[in-house]
Amino acid sequence: MKQKKVAVILAGCGVFDGAEIQETVFSLLSIEKDGAAYEVYAPDIEQKHVINHITGQEMSEKRNVLTEAARITRGKIQPLTKLKTSNFDALILPGGFGVAKNLCTFAFDGADCKVNPEVESVVKEFHKAKKPIGALCISPVLLTKIIGNTKVTIGNDPDASQAVEKMGGTHITTTHAEVVIDKENKIATTPCYMLDATISQIAEGADKVVKETLELILDTPLDESIER
Predict the structure, then answer these.
(1) pTM for the complete prediction?
(2) How far is CA 2 from CA 5, 89, 170, 208, in A?
(3) Cβ proximity of 34 and 94 under 8 Å
(4) What region, left, alpha or beta, does residue 57 occupy, with left being phi > 0 and alpha being psi -120 to 50 degrees?
(5) 73, 76, 104, 139: which is deepest, by most CB within 10 A?
(6) DSSP-based three-state secondary structure for 57
C-alpha cells in the first residue's frame, strides 16, 4: 500500500502568537506512528505581534511566521506557496492563537474575520479535491469561515461556538480527546487546548484526530468519533 502523505500548516511558534507547540509536535508524532509521512508549511508573512509567553505582554519586535514555525520543525519547513495539493492525501491544522491572528483575523474580528489568501486557497483546494482535513483547537473556526456549512468542535467555548454558527457551521460540544467527524466535508476536529487540558490529554486528542483524518482518506471513520 502506498504511504499516505499529510501536509501540515503552522501559524508560527508559541501558543499566544503562533502555533501551539504541543499540539503540533503530538500531531507530527501521530502522523509518523500511524505510518504516514508529513511535510510542514507556513505562510512567509510577518506575524501579527510578538507576545512574551511569561508575562503575556506584547513585545516591541517583529517576527516572521515561517521563520518562527521552523523552530518547531528543526528547520524542515517550506513556504506555504510551495504546497501542492496533488502531492498529499490529507491536511492537518494544529491550533494556537497564531491561527486566529496570523492565518486569519478571528481573534480580532470574530465571525467577520478575514483569512490569509494563501491559507484560504490551500484549504479550498483540499476540500474541492475531497481530501480530508484535520483541525485542532481553534483551527476549526478557520475551516468554517472558508468552507461555510461545516460540522466542527472547539470544545465548549460559547463565544467561539456562536461564531461558528454565525459563519454557517454547526458546532458540536465536546470534551477532551473527542473528535467530531463531518463526513460530507471530510473534516475531523478536536478541542485540545480550547479546554483546560493536561499534556497527556493533548497527546490523546492529537492522536485521535490524526487517526480519524487518515481514516477519512478511506471513508472509514473509527467508532470512537462523534458523528452528527
Answers:
(1) 0.94
(2) 9, 11, 34, 22
(3) no
(4) beta
(5) 139
(6) coil
Residue type, 164: V
- Non-local (6+) Cβ contacts of 179 within 8 A are 153, 188, 189, 190, 205, 208, 209, 212, 224, 225, 226
Residue type, 138: I
Phi, psi of 74 (to 5 degrees): 55, 35
DSSP-derived letter for residue 48 is: S
Single-letter amino acid code for the residue at 75? G
pLDDT at position 22 is: 98
Residues taking part in catalysis: 137
Locate 83 and state its grid cell. Answer: 504546497
Phi and psi dihedrals of 12, rounded to 5? 120, -145
- How many other CB atoms are found less than 10 A from the CB of residue 76? 10
Model confidence at 221, pLDDT cuts 50, 70, 90, reads: very low
Distance CA 148, CA 98 (A): 21
Determine the Cα angle at 159 with ends 156 and 162, to 5°.
90
Buried b (16+ CB within 10 A) or exposed e, 43-69: bbbebbebbeeeeeeeeeeebebbbbb
Higher pLDDT among residues 203 and 226, named by residue: 203
Cell match 480527546: residue?
177
